[in-house]
Model the fold of this input.
Amino acid sequence: MPRRSFRVLLQYFLTAQQSILVGGQAIIEGVMMRVPGAYAIAVRNPKGEIITRRTEFTSLVEKYAIFKKPVLRGMIALFESMKMGVGTLNESAEIAYEEDSSEDMSLKDKILSFLGTLLALSIGLGLFFVTPLFVTGNLLNLSETAFTFNVVSGIIRIALFLAYLWGISLLDDVKRLFQYHGAEHKTVYTFEAGENLDLESARPFQTQHPRCGTSFIFIVLISSIIVFAIIDSVVKLFVGEMNLQVRLLTHLPLIPFVAGVSYEVLKLSSKYRHIAWVRALAAPGIWLQNITTREPDDDQLTVALESLKHAFGDDLEKYQGQTYVAEAID
Done:
C-alpha cells in the first residue's frame, strides 16, 4: 500500500468518532447513496452523462421510538434497504439502457419487477436455505442432532454462497457492478475521514469496508447456525422428531430475527474494530469483499462521489470536513 494511503487509512481509524447514517450500494452503471433524510442515485447513460436523482426519505426507525430497539431496528433496516435497493436498481436500468419511462411502460415494469423479485427470492431461499436443510437431514441423516445439524447445514450454506459469489464474479456485467461497489466504499471512506469529495482524496482508500452488506450476509450465515441450533433444541422438546417440514416452519419465520441479531453484531464489530479478536471475527466478511469489490476507474469513482454529493444536497457543507463512523450497511 502506498505511504499516503496508509497514512490516510490510519488517520481514519484513529480519529473517526461521530456516527452518521451514510451508506449505499452499487447499481447498474452507477451508485446509490443514502444519507440522513434522503438517498440519491448517480448513473451514467449511454452518452456518458451522469444522471442524478434524489429522493427524500425518513426511516421508520427515526419516526417511531419502538423501532429503535436492538434487533428490531436491524429488521426494519433490512426491509427498507431491500425495498430501496430494488427500486434504485430499476431506476438505474431505466437510465443506463434509456428505457421507455412512460406511464404504461412504468406499470408494466413494476409488475415485471415484482415478479422478478419474487422469483429471485424464491430461488435464493431454495438454494441457500432449503437445499442445505435437505442435504443435511435427508442425505446425511443428521436431523435429530440440533447442534451438529445446524453446523453442517451452515457450512453447506456458506459453501454455496461462496460458490455463487465466485461464479457471478466471472460475468463481465457483474465485474463492472463490483467496480462500482468499490467506488461506493472509497467514497464512504473519504467522507468518513473528513476529506474533500474529489478523486485525489478518494483514490487512496481501499475497496473493502467493515460495514459492507457482504460482511453483513456472512454474519447472518454464522448467526443462523447459533440461533437455529438453539431453536431446534427447544422445538424438539415439544414435537419430538425433527424433519425438513418442521425446520422450514420454524426457521423461515425467524430469518428476519436472525438478520436483526446480525445487524447488532455488525454494529458492535464496527464500533470495537480496534480490538484484535473483534477484527479476527470480522476478517472473513472483509475477505469476501475481495470477490464483491473491484478497484474502480476514475469515471466510476466520479459517479460515486456525485451520488453522495447529490444525496446531501445543500446540507453537504454542514457534514463535510468532520470525521465519522457511519452506521449504515453499505
